[in-house]
Amino acid sequence: MQDTKPTGTNIATAVQDLAGKAVTVVGLARSGVAAARLLLAAGAQVTVADRKERNELERALAELDAGAITVRAGADYGAAFESPELIVISPGVPSRAEELRRARARGVQVIGELELASRFLTAPILAVTGTNGKSTTVTLIGEFLAASGKRVFVGGNIGTALSEAALAAYQAGGEASPYDFLVVEVSSFQLETVERFRPWVAALLNITLDHMDRYESVEEYVAAKARIFDNQTAGDYALFNLDDERVAGLRARTRAKALGFSRTRAVGEGFDSGTFLEGDLIVSTVTGRRQEVCRRTELRLLGPHNLENALAAVSFALLCGCPLDAVRRVLQTFPGLEHALEFVRERGGVRFVNDSKGTNVDATVKALESLDQPIWLIAGGRDKGADFSKLRQPVRARVKQVILIGEAAPRIQEALGEFDRVSHAATLREAVEAAAQGASPGDVVLLSPACASFDMFADYQDRGRQFKALVNALP
What we know:
Oligomer: single chain
Helix content: 25-40%
Distance between the termini: 56 Å
Number of helices: 17
Low-confidence stretches: 1-8
C-alpha cells in the first residue's frame, strides 16, 4: 500500500490562479454558496447568478458578504454570463445549458464546484459514485476513519459541499491540512465538469438507469460516471463492483491499480485484489494480505445492496490503514442512513419503513428485495424518465398493495400491467392513513417512491420526514 501523504502546493497555486479573476457562480443552493465563499476568500471578483428572484434567495445571500459580490437574479440572470473569465456551476445546473454553451464558444472555462474545491486540497480524496448506495457507503467510510482516530471530512453530494473543506484548508494557512482524509460522494452531474479532480481511491458502486431526463442515452450516463477515474495514475486505486457487468467492464478506463468487490465470488480475472464474501465471511486482500473482517450476519445493515456498500467501504477503510477491530465494531453497530430503509415505528404488528432516498426504480427494487414480510408500497413522485416495468416482477412477488402518489402515478400503474392491487392517494397523508388502515399484523408499510420528490416536496429528506411525522402521529 502506498504512502497516502500527498505533496504539492495546491492552495497557493489555486489562489494565484483566482486572485482578481472575474468569476460567475451559477446556482445558489448549498454548493453554489460554498463555492462563492471559497472564491471570495481566494480574492476573486464574484458574481452569483440564479434564475430565482432575489427575494427567494435571501437565506442563501445572507451567508455571503453582500458588499463583495454582484447578484444577478430573476430577469437579470443572463447578465451574469456577459464577461466572466471563469464560470463555476452547481450540480443542479445543466452543464449543456445554452448560456454555458455560448460562454464556452467565447473561450470561457466552465467547471463545477467539485472541481473548484479539489484544486485547494492536498489531503487524499476518497471518492464514491454510482446510481445507488453512495451516501451509505460514504457515511460508512467516514465512520471507519473516525473510529480509527483519523481527522475526516465527509461530504460532496451529501451534506456539506467540498468547497467548505477547501475553505477550511485555505483558512488553515496551507501549512497542514485540517483533514487526514476527504470522503466525497460524487454524482454524475458533478463529474460532467471535472478537469483535474483526482481521487486517491475512487469507487463505482453500480450503474442502473437514472436521470434519463438529463442524458440522451445510457452510454452517455455511464461515460459521466466513469469520469471519476480519468485523472488517476498508477499510484491511485480504482474500485469496481464485479457483480455489475457495466461497472466491471470499465476496468480499462483507469490507469490506477484496479480493485474489485463482490458478494458472489472471490476477486480475480484482471483485478489486483479486493473485498468479497467467502461463504458467510467478509474477506479482503486490498492491502496485499488476506484479512478476515467479520461474518455477514454481524452487519446491522439490511439487504444485499447494503452488503455491497459495506464491501466497498471496507476496501477504503483497509487501504487507509484502519485497524480491523475498528472496522468490525462499526459494521456491527452502524444502523444505516436516515431515509434509507429506516425503521420508523411498529404499530399493531405493522412495521413502517422510510426509504424516501429510493428516488429511482433500482433503489425501490432493492428495498423490496430486502424485506421478507408482505409489503404495502407507497410509491410515486416526479418521473426522471425511468423504466417502471422493472417494478413488475418484484411487486408481484412481494407486495400486497401499491398506493401511488404524485405525477408519475399513471405511468407506474400502466407499467405494473395486470397487477390490480393498486390505489391512488392525493397526498402522502392519505397514503399513510390508507396503508395503516389496510395492513395486517406482520405486514410492512414501505415508502420507497422510485421517483424524485420535487412535485410535492422540497427534497427526498422533506418527503421522508413528513412520512415519519405522519406515521408517528397515527393513533
